[in-house]
Amino acid sequence: MENIIQLQQNIIYSCSDEKIKSTEHYFPEHALGIMLSGESQYFTNDGTFVMEEGAICLMRRNQLFKKMKTLGSNGEPIALISLFFDQNILHEYATENNIATQNAYKGAPMINLSGNVFLKAFFDSLLPYIDDPKKLTAKIARLKSMEAIELLLQADDFILNFLFDFQEPYKIDIEAYMNLHFQYNIPIASFAKFTGRSLSSFKRDFTKIFETTPEKWLQQKRLEQAYFLISKKKQRPSDVYLEVGFENLSHFSISFKKKYGVNPSEL
């Protein structure tokens, strides 16, 4: 069972005593996290990032990834603390410290900061609030966020560009993006945002290219990928449906049989 405690609006503690299969996530804001125990694997189109116990990671906003959590080697729960930097707090910091808006950040979406003793001490200072979250007031949370920004800027010069690139996603090639990211089960509005469009312009451009709606295309694409993985790669339907972007096994099985005339398990 997973237990999530929202210590403050932008600071979250989560703990689970069971392995969690791959699930989709995306961060609308930058996130700084520490793995207290257990392990989390993050799968992106740029590769796999593994957070073991004690690992500290800075993750870029507007990133799509799948995550799988695993208990520690001795059965320790999967526990982590995450702090999110919304654009308002970053704009406030930039104004107070005369930081100009940076050019578009083009580096890695996940930065390994494990071993940084100052960030480790920062997260240690948050631990007492897990048992008494009411003590973490909004005022303290703001101070903690500002402290975390200071520590990150001391960690490496390029983090200035990472944090203070306020540019929104620009208009990109829908066809290439969707063929790379169709397996992420996120709202159509999120696909629109990540391709630099409003929802209405995304649907209009999408229909021109694919000659069908995003919803129909996504289901067909996911079913085709599932068929390949089950029939050619000999993977089990129970392992495939989440990987290709379906929410539950029942819906996947019904859709699969409707398209191919057989249950996925019969392959």
Biggest β-sheet: count, sense, barrel? 6 strands, antiparallel
The whole-angstrom Rg is 21 Å
Fraction of helical residues: 40-55%
Q: What's the SSE pattern?
A: EEEEEEEEEHEHHHHHHHHHH
Number of domains: 2
Low-confidence runs of at least 5 consecutive residues:
none
**In the CATH classification, which architecture of the largest domain applies?**
Sandwich
Remind me, CATH topology of the largest domain? Jelly Rolls
Number of helices: 11
- Beta percentage is 15-25%
- Oligomer type: single chain
Outline, from the CA principal axes? Answer: globular
GO molecular function, one term: sequence-specific DNA binding
Keywords: DNA-binding, Transcription, Transcription regulation
Pfam families: ExsA_N, HTH_18
Protein name: Helix-turn-helix transcriptional regulator
Description of the molecule:
- This is Helix-turn-helix transcriptional regulator.
- One of its GO terms (molecular function) is DNA-binding transcription factor activity.
- Pfam families: ExsA_N, HTH_18.
- With about 270 residues, this protein is an alpha+beta fold.
- It folds into 2 domains: about 1-165, Jelly Rolls, CATH 2.60.120; about 175-265, Homeodomain-like (Arc Repressor Mutant, subunit A, Orthogonal Bundle), CATH 1.10.10.60.
- About 40% of the residues lie in helices and about 25% in strands.
- It contains 11 helices and 10 strands.
- The chain has helices spanning about 85-95, 115-125, 130, 140-155, 160-165, 175-180, 190-195, 200-210, 215-230, 235-245, 250-260, and strands at about 1-10, 10-15, 20-25, 30-35, 40-45, 45-50, 55-60, 65-70, 80-85, 110.
- Strands 1-2-9-4-7-10 form a 6-stranded antiparallel sheet.
- Helix 7 crosses helix 8 (about 200-210).
- The longest helix is centred in the middle third of the chain and has 18 residues, at about 140-155.
- It is globular and about 60 Å long.
- The two termini are about 35 Å apart.
- The mean pLDDT is about 90.
